[in-house]
Design a protein that fits this description.
The protein is of the alpha/beta class and 432 residues long. Helix content is 28%, strand content 21%. It is built from 12 helices and 19 strands. β8 and β9 form a beta hairpin. The model has no long low-confidence stretch (mean pLDDT 90).
Length: 432
């Protein structure tokens, strides 16, 4: 049993296949467990008039479930809506006189469902052929609006264009592969999930008010408590099976998001990678690279190239050690990587090792802290934790270590959140 399943079993959180019931009238997907899951959750299917199938994979479609259709009445036919291939698997499970209608759809279709408006969107997923999987954009008679986005990988451009300015009240977005990033593009993982959120925010399809729920969670995801911590900086959450999500009503926020976060760690501990994930769902980020290019150092150049390659396309890289000036004027989230190379650059700038005035460096530190204190956007700063290493063998090394330790402490004092990363595992030291 994997760690995720073991933890779920201990917490009594055994999950079924992903499906949802809207206002008792619309069933989104109908896998093998859907009728029994409704019973376990205390929900009746007696009023279901429409089943919306996203595709023909068996965890989303079990034609035998139609035999459980005690909710179908002669004067209230059931409409089964979905891609043609999915409907074809259902036809033999329905009698010739049964009040069941099959309605094939393709991306771009728009259907009125007794006061609801349904738009069919393209998914980045396939069963038999391209185009045989869809997503659903549903607007209620009251005007609340949700996007049901499972199964899919990073959304096609046609879908992003179709949802522009939608400003959904709720988004149910699949996050299947978790920490596995080598299993293909037909599902999201914890790397692509926030990037899709960033694309949707950039298109104004989701906003700060959108309730983002991660669904379709597999074994490759960490246990629920850890997954919740991973999703929180992206404005997303996990809900229990059988939970009620009220669409169109503002969800209480437990705490204000951190404006300033300090991420500490030793060499190669994974601190930069973790810091990048905190802002991965932002469509625009200013990446303050304080290390610059070191002429003639091939190994350093390779490290810089690796960092650049993994940054999302919407991020702007600014290579500078004048961090305070950027913080005073920036209007989008900032990733500052890192304080150690920033301090090195300021020491070199003031030529302190060859007789320069250390007071100028102290002034730079005060300037940085003042700008950080007044910043109006989220800032994630990365720094080396120097308190656990060996004592440097030179006086200059010891002075640098002590000064960086002082900078770290001062920035931590200005930060709502402080995280220590060890062997790739983040541990919260402070969270307001």
């Amino acid at each position: 049993m994997c760690a995720s399943c073991r933890t779920a079993a201990e917490r009594g959180e055994i999950r079924g296949q992903t499906a949802a019931l809207i206002d008792g009238a619309i069933l989104l997907d109908c896998g093998p467990d859907a009728p029994r899951a409704a019973v376990r959750a205390g929900r009746s299917l007696a009023s279901v008039r429409y089943i919306l199938l996203t595709h023909a994979h068996p965890d989303h479609l079990n034609p035998a479930a139609l035999l459980f259709r005690s909710w179908v009445q002669a004067d209230r036919p059931l409409d089964v809506i979905g891609p043609a291939d999915a409907l074809d698997l259902c036809r033999d499970w329905v009698g010739p006189d049964d009040p069941v209608n099959f309605v094939p759809v393709v991306p771009g279709d728009r259907i009125a469902l007794n006061g609801y408006t349904l738009r069919v969107l393209e998914a980045a997923h396939r069963v038999f052929r391209d185009g045989d999987s869809v997503l659903y954009d549903v607007t209620s008679p009251a005007g609340s609006r949700l996007l049901w986005a499972t199964d899919t990988g990073p959304l096609p451009s046609s879908t992003l264009d179709a949802v522009r300015d939608a400003r959904y009240d709720a988004l149910f977005l699949e996050e299947t592969f978790g920490t596995r990033t080598d299993l293909g593009a037909g599902h999201h993982d914890l790397t692509t999930f926030p990037r899709t959120l960033a694309a949707l925010r950039d298109a104004d399809a989701i906003t700060a008010a959108t309730d983002v729920v991660a669904v379709h969670l597999s074994h490759y995801n960490p246990p629920t408590p850890e997954l919740s911590e991973r999703l929180a900086p992206w404005g997303a959450r996990v809900v229990d099976d059988g939970a009620t999500v009220t669409v169109g009503v503002a969800r209480p926020v437990d705490a204000a998001p951190s404006t300033r976060t300090l991420v500490l760690g030793g060499a190669r501990a994974g601190k930069s990678t973790y810091a990048e994930t905190l802002l991965a769902a932002e469509p625009r980020v200013t990446y303050l690279a304080t290390g610059g290019v070191q002429e003639g150092d091939r190994e350093w150049a390779e490290r810089v190239a690796l960092h650049r390659a993994r940054r999302p396309t919407g991020w702007t890289t600014v290579e500078t050690s004048d961090v305070a000036a950027v913080l005073r004027n920036v209007r989008e989230p900032v990733l500052l990587d890192c304080l150690g190379t920033w301090l090195t650059a300021r020491l070199d700038h003031h030529r302190v090792w060859s007789g320069g005035d250390w007071a100028d460096v102290d002034a730079d530190i005060i300037d940085l802290l003042g700008a950080l204190r007044r910043v109006v956007v989220p800032v994630v700063a990365v720094s080396n934790e120097v308190g656990s290493g060996v004592v440097p063998p030179t006086a200059a090394g010891r002075r640098f270590r002590d000064l960086l330790g002082r900078v770290n402490s001062a920035v931590a004092a200005e930060s709502e959140s402080v995280v220590l990363v060890v062997a790739g595992v983040p541990t919260s030291l402070r969270s307001f």
